[in-house]
Amino acid sequence: MTQEPLVREAEVAAFRDAVLTKLTYAVGSMSGRTSDKFERFAVRTETSPVLKLPVLSSGCSAWLECRLLPEPHNQQVYDLFIGEVTAAWADDRVFRNGHWEFDTAPVHLRTLHYVAGGQFYATGQSIKV
Fold it and tell me: 10 Å Cβ neighbour count for 106?
C-alpha cells in the first residue's frame, strides 16, 4: 500500500480568524485523501499568485504560499516540513508596518490556534517588554 505524503510539493498555510472556528474544526477533522474537503464544506477559494494553489477567499487574517523543500530525514523522523515562502498576504487591519496589531484589530480577526479535543484559542492581548 502506498501512503500519500502528509505535505505535498506545495501548500498554503492559512491563519484563520475566529469566525471560521466550526468550519476549521470540521475540515481539519477529515482526510482529504478520498474526497474534496473544500467542495464538501462549500469553502470558497481563490488562486494563489505564484504556485496557483487554492487560498481561502474570506475568513483569513493572513496566508503563506509555500513550496516544499524536501528534507527526507526530517520529514520521516520528526514529521518536520520546511517550506520556502513564495507569496504572502495579510489583512492590514491585523498586520501593519511589519507588525501584528491584534490589540487594535476587530476581535473576529484574531487568529485561531488549535489545542486539542475541539478546543481553540484566539490570539489575545499582546505583552510588550
Answer: 12
Residue 86 has pLDDT above 70, yes or no: yes
Going by the DSSP 8-state scheme, the letter that residue 67 receives in this structure is E
Contact yes or no for 67/51 (Cβ under 8 A): yes
Instruction: Give dist(CA 1, CA 16) in Å, integer.
Output: 34
Q: Which of 83, 84, 101 is nearest to 93 (CA)?
A: 101
> Which residues are 77's β-sheet partners?
none
User: For residues 104 and 81, is the Cβ–Cβ distance under 8 A?
Assistant: no
**21 near 121, Cβ under 8 Å?**
no
Give Cβ neighbours of residue 28 (< 8 Å, ≥ 6 apart): 114
pTM of the model: 0.75
Position 24 pLDDT exceeds 70 = yes
Find out whether 120 and 21 touch, Cβ atoms under 8 Å. Answer: yes
Q: Which three cell numbers stand for residue 69?
A: 523543500
